[in-house]
Amino acid sequence: AVGSTQSTGKQWYQRRVRAQANANQRSGRAGRTGPGQAWRMYTENCYRSELLSTTVPEIQRTNLATVVLLLKSLGVTDLLSFHFMDPPPQDNILTSMYQLWVLGAFDNVGNLSTLGRQMVEFPMDPAMSKLVLVACEMGCSEEVLVIVSMLSVPAIFYRPKGREEESDAAREKFQVPESDHLSLLHVYQQWRNKGYSSTWCNTYFIHYKAMKKVREVHSQLLEIMEKQRLEVTSCGNKWDIVRKCICSAYFHQAARLKGIGEYVNARTGMPCHLHPTSALYGMGYSSDYVVYHELIMTSKEFMQCVTSVEAEWLAELGPMFYSIKESVHSIEEGKAKAAERRRQMEEELAEAEEALEAERERRSAPSSSRRAIATPGHNQTPARTPRRLGF
Known about the structure:
Blueprint: E1 2-5, E2 10-13, H1 20-28, H2 44-49, H3 65-73, H4 90-103, H5 114-120, H6 126-138, H7 141-151, H8 164-172, H9 180-193, H10 198-203, H11 208-227, H12 239-250, E3 254-259, E4 262-265, E5 271-274, E6 289-297, E7 301-309, H13 311-317, H14 328-364
Parallel strand pairs: 2-6, 5-7
Antiparallel strand pairs: 1-2, 3-4, 3-6, 4-5, 6-7
Helix pairs in contact: 3-4, 5-6, 6-7, 6-12, 7-9, 7-11
């Protein structure tokens, strides 16, 4: 089963006990086309006592950032009292709203910002939407569109049985030492230079169907960019700009080096590990700070799709989480600025609460003016008397 931990943003893949409804549905397939039997590898007592009656709805076990952003764009103000068919825990909604505020999609009072309205137009994760929009400002939108398209499909490399070493050697030819994201970009650029060849994909153990899907997603994103009048520009070989752009969207998922090949989450201190298929794994040296696309827990917590970043980028793009140690004078100035920002946020919150209370009073107050009942033809059409008809 797949799930998400809202407090850490971690996705996990674990074996879970199936539900009774799921087991009954699978047993029904045995006699669909002909007589058959279904064998269950557990006892009847286990079925009745350990299995849930129905499967837990996906909305209650996944990240709700996309759902919250969509509801806000539709004009839903009070998300906690929204009537979901299967209501998720309120903590999940609050955590998703906090994540969107961190990304800049919400302002300090929880309303949709200008950036958030642009993010809604892209049918993907909010962090990836911000990645595309920031890339337009930094002048590397062409490269970022390819990376986002590559992230929208499962793994593009495969390892056939008996040819694992050949597959790993082919994968290493495309790896960029600083970033898995840039490695994906390198694969797509080489495939495009070879004329989108299927033979080339088979030679380097790449799923051709997955690459075709990437090309379709890329064309759809280009159409959205054209519709939103966003310029598609390339940064050439200046891939450090792309790494900084990735940091601007995933600074909240950063990890710092703790030991040899061991990382911990920069915010929570949770251990993270590089996956053996990562371009940064076994590189000879380890970057002090990295950002990751997602954290997957199987046997350990593995970071998937990792990019090395600079500490200054984290402090610049994520000031609500990170800062650089400075002199005493600078610390005092920082505290004064933080107090000023806190005061402004409190003022904005008070104004928003007053406006919300005024709106509630306006809706609850009875209407003082009496409206006349509109009767068709009344006082509008002149009476058809004999005098007016000429009699």
